[in-house]
Specification:
Helix content is 85%, strand content 0%. The protein starts with a helix and ends with a helix.
Amino acid sequence: MSTQETGKRQFLISRVATVAVILALIRCISETFRLNYYTTDVLTFAEIKPFLIGAFITAIALLSITILSFYSKHKFIIAVSILTIILLLIVKRIYFIP
């Protein structure tokens, strides 16, 4: 496989990874609205805290992905995306979210 094909593949994977992180951010934000819709009680900060933390992590990741994309650092974009998903899974595990 040539280096041009490898670079093109890394570019496509980094774009897919970026879209995955954007979808994770949308999911974190929209989950608070879903909880508000299905609950009869008023939501407390403790109940939405894990989703705010997840949205914060994902927003920082998207900022770094955007900056890395300006410099065409596709390998780092892929690494940041993977790290972001792992961090979101850790937050999910810490707060016992089903």
